């Protein structure tokens, strides 16, 4: 029979494993079936409110935090549902990444949409079929667009 590792041994072993970058985003959908996208000043493309999941933070809480930081909207945890998990292999020097997408309806958000800091230049409501184009052809956003348009239930996609 194999020896059972202690908690400390398991933690030490897990720290030796290679990690993958993980980001989270929140697709806020209005009554016209449009989704809110933001344009950060340091990017040449649009995204949903999003960012890197910080240490000790779940992807869902990261998406909610980034939405508040980038739009001023407060979205309660219970109204945030899974959209898709997109695993993108790195290309052109980019790292492999998990992009965990969530969705909610605008009716569940409180506050007014504002650009609260210098990071975000613009916010805009976008038809589902424009998401991939505005993202600059990002493979993960092509999949998010497909999921929104098809009301698809594929929660995990590799691109």
From TrEMBL:
GO terms for molecular function: hydrolase activity. It holds the Pfam family NUDIX. It is an enzyme of class 3 (hydrolase). Residues 19-152 form the Nudix hydrolase domain. Its cofactor is Mg(2+). InterPro entries: Nudix_hydrolase, NUDIX_hydrolase-like_dom_sf, NUDIX_hydrolase_CS, NUDIX_hydrolase_dom. Its EC number is 3.6.1.-. Coiled coil: none annotated. CDD domains: NUDIX_Hydrolase (cd02883). The keyword Hydrolase applies. Keywords: Hydrolase. PANTHER family: GDP-MANNOSE MANNOSYL HYDROLASE, MUTT_NUDIX FAMILY PROTEIN. Belongs to the Nudix hydrolase family. This is RNA pyrophosphohydrolase. It comes from Candidatus Southlakia epibionticum. The lineage of its organism: Bacteria, Candidatus Saccharimonadota, Candidatus Saccharimonadia, Candidatus Saccharimonadales, Candidatus Saccharimonadaceae. The gene is rppH_3.
């Amino acid at each position: 029979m194999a020896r059972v590792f202690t908690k400390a041994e398991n933690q030490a072993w897990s720290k030796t494993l290679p990690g993958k970058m993980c980001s989270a985003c929140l697709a806020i959908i209005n009554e016209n079936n449009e989704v809110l996208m933001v344009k950060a000043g340091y990017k040449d493309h649009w995204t949903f409110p999003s960012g890197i999941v910080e240490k000790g933070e779940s992807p869902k809480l990261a998406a909610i935090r980034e939405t508040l930081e980038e739009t001023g909207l407060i979205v309660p945890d219970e109204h945030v549902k899974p959209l898709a998990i997109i695993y993108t292999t790195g290309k052109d020097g980019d790292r492999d990444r998990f992009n965990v997408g969530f969705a909610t309806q605008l009716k569940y958000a409180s506050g007014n949409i504002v650009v609260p800091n210098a990071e975000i230049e613009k916010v805009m409501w976008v038809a589902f079929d424009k998401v991939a184009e505005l993202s600059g052809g990002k493979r993960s956003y092509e999949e998010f667009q497909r999921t929104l348009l098809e009301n698809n239930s594929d929660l995990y996609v590799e691109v």
